Q: What sequence folds into this?
DNA sequence: ATAGGCACCTGGTGGC
DNA sequence: TGCCACCAGGTGCCTA
C-alpha cells in the first residue's frame, strides 16, 4: 500500500477521532500479523489515552499516556475503517464485521477504528515512548524526505557509495524514509533518470534535483489524499488507498505524457519489483 | 558491510 | 464455472 503519502493520509484521517481520546477496549482477533502481537496487547491498550498520533516513515505511532507507543504498519494491504464518529456533518454506522478485521479499537468517544489487512504484512507493537526511535524497526531508517535533514548534501553523500541502480537505492529506507515502488517510479520519471542507472554514476546536479522532486511528488500525493479525506467522510469512512493518478506507474504500453514524446511506457523488473519508465525521456 | 533473492500472505485478473 | 499463472503500494532475513 501505503507509501508515505497514504500513511500520512491515514494518520490525518485518524487524528480527529483518536488524538486526545481514550481507548475503551481493543479487540485483538488473532495472535499476530506479520509478527506475534506483544504480550497482553489488548490489556495494555485498554484505558489508555492517545496523546498524539504521529508518523515516522511508513509507520504510525500512537503515543499513549501509559508511557508506551502503539506502532502500526499497514503492510501492503492494511486499511483503517472509522465508524461511529461524527465526521463533519456525517456519522458512519458501525458496519458488520468483515473478514480480515484483525484489530478493533473502541474509543470512549463512541468511535470505532477497524484495522483490516487481508495479506497480513502489517504489524503492531508496543514500545517505550522514550526509546521508540531505537526500536529495531525504526533505528536504521533514514531521514524524512519532507524534513530539514533531507537535503542535497545528504543525498549526494548517501548515494555516492551506492553501486546499485537508483531505483533500488531510493527504495532503500535507510537512504530516505517512506518512498515505495510507486513514488520512486514517479520521482525518476519527473527527474528524467533511468531506473537502471547506477546511483553513484549520476551527476551531482541530477542527484541534487531529486531532492525537490521527491518533496514535490510526496507533497502532491499528500494533498490528493487530503481531498480524498473529504470524500471518505461522506462515503464510508474507509481510510485506505485513495484515487490518485500517476504519470508512469502502472502505465505500461501507454504513451509517455511528456510534451512532444508520446513514446510507449515500458515495464521492467528490478529486484522483483516492476519499474515503469520512458526509455526515451529517462536516461 | 552490502547487494540480491526469498519469504511471508490473500485476492484479483485474465487466459484457456 | 474452474483452474492456473501472474500480479500487487513492504520489508526482514538469509545467502553469497
A:
Amino acid at each position: 500500500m501505503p507509501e508515505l503519502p497514504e500513511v500520512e493520509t491515514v494518520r490525518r484521517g485518524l487524528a480527529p477521532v483518536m488524538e486526545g481520546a481514550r481507548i475503551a477496549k481493543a479487540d485483538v482477533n488473532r495472535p499476530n500479523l506479520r509478527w506475534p502481537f506483544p504480550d497482553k496487547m489488548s490489556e495494555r491498550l485498554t484505558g489508555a489515552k492517545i496523546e498524539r498520533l504521529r508518523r515516522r516513515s511508513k509507520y504510525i505511532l500512537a503515543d499513549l499516556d501509559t508511557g508506551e507507543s502503539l506502532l502500526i504498519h499497514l503492510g501492503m494491504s492494511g486499511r483503517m475503517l472509522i465508524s461511529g464518529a461524527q465526521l463533519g456533518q456525517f456519522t458512519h454506522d458501525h458496519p458488520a464485521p468483515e473478514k480480515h478485521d484483525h484489530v478493533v479499537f473502541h474509543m470512549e468517544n463512541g468511535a470505532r477504528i477497524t484495522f483490516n489487512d487481508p495479506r497480513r504484512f502489517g504489524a503492531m507493537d508496543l514500545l517505550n515512548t522514550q526509546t521508540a526511535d531505537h526500536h529495531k524497526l525504526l533505528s536504521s531508517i533514514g531521514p524524512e524526505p519532507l524534513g530539514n535533514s533531507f537535503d542535497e548534501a545528504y543525498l549526494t553523500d548517501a548515494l555516492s557509495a551506492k553501486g546499485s541502480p537508483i531505483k533500488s537505492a531510493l527504495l532503500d529506507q535507510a537512504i530516505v524514509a517512506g518512498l515505495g515502488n510507486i513514488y520512486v517510479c514517479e520521482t525518476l520519471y519527473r527527474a528524467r533518470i533511468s531506473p537502471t542507472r547506477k546511483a553513484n554514476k549520476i551527476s551531482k546536479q541530477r542527484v541534487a534535483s531529486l531532492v525537490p522532486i521527491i518533496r514535490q511528488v510526496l507533497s502532491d500525493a499528500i494533498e490528493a489524499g487530503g481531498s480524498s479525506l473529504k470524500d471518505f467522510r461522506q462515503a464510508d469512512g474507509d481510510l485506505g488507498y485513495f484515487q490518485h493518478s500517476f504519470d508512469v506507474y502502472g502505465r505500461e504500453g501507454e504513451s509517455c505524457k511528456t510534451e512532444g514524446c508520446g513514446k510507449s511506457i515500458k515495464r521492467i523488473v528490478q529486484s522483483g519489483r516492476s519499474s515503469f519508465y520512458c526509455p526515451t525521456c529517462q536516461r
